[in-house]
Design a protein that fits this description.
Radius of gyration: 45 Å
Largest sheet: 5 strands, antiparallel
CATH architecture of the largest domain: 2-Layer Sandwich
Mean pLDDT: 89
Number of domains: 3
Shape: rod-shaped
Helix content: 40-55%
Number of helices: 15
CATH class of the largest domain: Alpha Beta
Low-confidence stretches: 1-7
Distance between the termini: 127 Å
Strand content: 25-35%
CATH superfamily of the largest domain: Reverse transcriptase/Diguanylate cyclase domain
């Protein structure tokens, strides 16, 4: 068996090994003078070996800007310990700051006394610059994503959050740190998580971008509406994921609903207006014709309404219209369509209703109206009556206008016959 002496490397071979290592290797005595430096150190200093051995770091570094270097050397040799950390050093000759990952250990004599130190330093300057640049870019990206008016997040196919911006964390009433790495079911109520997961699955199933409308209730019971864009995202070695961008459009949704309401609603009585009534009635007319169903229509007019306006003024006349509208609405069925057609005239569309049934409803409206006493900030009570005309769908009717025209004629006959009555068209 070969002895340990036979296994040791010759000095020249050891020197070749140390010179081929991609690191700066050196030794120093207790006074900080170099006793060895490999080729990497010599190249760094741009010196010959004889120009390094016996010299201390003040010849090569600006020690006022490289305090860590001398401090770490002293720690190693004074305390007989190994020091491993980063050092920032300023090289005099090239006037450049370099950063090293350094391991320094004490050297001992045969009696165990510290006689110097050895060090291995790896230049990580470019790595640190890249790391700094990446951190700056991340900080910039986070600043942008945290301040954009959208909820931005990333989830994998197992429903684990990989990223959320600060708006998402605020929406969830949590912190970014507590959300990332957790499943949606861990940070959201189950029903909310399941609701959002439905559209998430469309992304994974189709591998295509999805643009959808989503809604959820907040802790106060208010419904929030969102427009969400979700796109598939893949990283090698990672689970399939999606990136979501959700914008709260609740105000826009409510505004849209308000516009829709204004477009379809009479602003005074809050009943449907003539436009909505006509469009809806046209659809119901064609459905009734196709399905061979019955349908009736009631036209209503307030008797002597002009006298009310002349005697009390238009503001009180408006109050009367509102009271009449509420009374009629309370008299019709849930599926009937009531609208203010114009002035003091109202119409009720009665789907799937015979003429006889329509007459019963018409009489109910008339009687309830006769019992109504309207009071307000004026002296006395206003009592009014209404006249009603009813028509019924005929096989020969070509459009809704024919049905409407017959109800209108029946209304005028009711008024001509003394008012406060129901008249059915033939």
């Amino acid at each position: 068996m070969p002895s340990s002496e036979n296994l040791s490397l010759p000095i020249n071979s050891l020197s070749e090994v140390l010179n081929s290592v991609g690191a700066f290797i050196y030794t120093k005595d207790l006074q900080g003078h170099y006793t060895y430096a490999n080729k990497a150190v010599l190249d760094l200093f741009d010196k010959k070996l004889r120009e390094v051995i016996g010299f201390d770091d003040s010849h090569f570094f600006d020690l006022t800007l490289s305090k860590q270097l001398s401090e770490n050397d002293q720690k190693v040799m004074s305390n007989n310990i190994t020091v491993e950390n980063e050092e920032t050093n300023f090289l005099k000759d090239i006037q450049e700051v370099r950063i090293y990952k350094t391991i320094k250990k004490p050297l001992h004599d045969d009696c165990g006394n510290v006689v110097g130190m050895c060090g291995i330093s790896t230049d990580i300057t470019e790595e640190k610059k890249l790391d700094k640049k990446l951190k700056e870019q991340k900080q910039l990206l986070d600043t942008v994503l945290d301040n954009v008016d959208a909820y931005i997040y990333m989830k994998d196919s197992e429903r684990t959050f990989k990223y959320v911006n600060s708006k998402v964390a605020e929406l969830f009433g949590n912190t970014v740190k507590n959300i990332v790495g957790k499943k949606d079911t861990e940070v959201l109520p189950i029903e909310v998580a399941e609701h959002f997961n439905l559209s998430d699955q469309k992304v994974f199933d189709t591998n295509q971008k999805q643009v959808i409308e989503e809604s959820s209730e907040d802790e106060n019971g208010n419904t929030n509406h969102y427009i969400s864009t979700k796109i598939p995202y893949y990283q090698e070695g990672e689970l399939p994921a999606l990136i979501g961008f959700s914008t709260n459009v609740t105000e826009l949704y409510l505004l849209k609903e308000e516009f829709k309401k204004q477009a379809n609603t009479d602003p005074l009585t809050e009943l449907y207006n003539r436009r909505y009534f006509t469009e809806h009635a046209e659809r119901e007319f064609h459905l009734a014709k196709i399905n061979l169903q019955s349908m009736s229509l009631i036209s209503i007019d307030i008797d002597h309404f002009k006298n009310i306006n002349d005697q009390f003024g238009h503001p009180i006349g408006d109050s009367v219209l509102i009271a009449v509208a509420k009374c009629i609405l309370a008299s019709v069925r849930k599926n009937d369509i009531l609208a203010r057609i114009g002035g003091e005239e109202f119409s009720v569309l009665l789907p799937n209703t015979s003429l006889a049934a329509a007459k019963v409803i018409g009489e109910k409206i008339r009687l309830n109206q006769s019992d109504l006493l309207i009071t307000g900030q004026w002296k006395g009570e206003i009592k009014i009556t209404v006249s009603l005309g009813i028509s019924h769908l005929k096989v020969e009717d070509k459009d809704f206008d024919e049905l409407f025209s017959r109800a209108d004629k029946a209304l005028y006959q009711a008024k001509a016959s003394g008012r406060d009555q129901v008249f059915c068209a033939k």
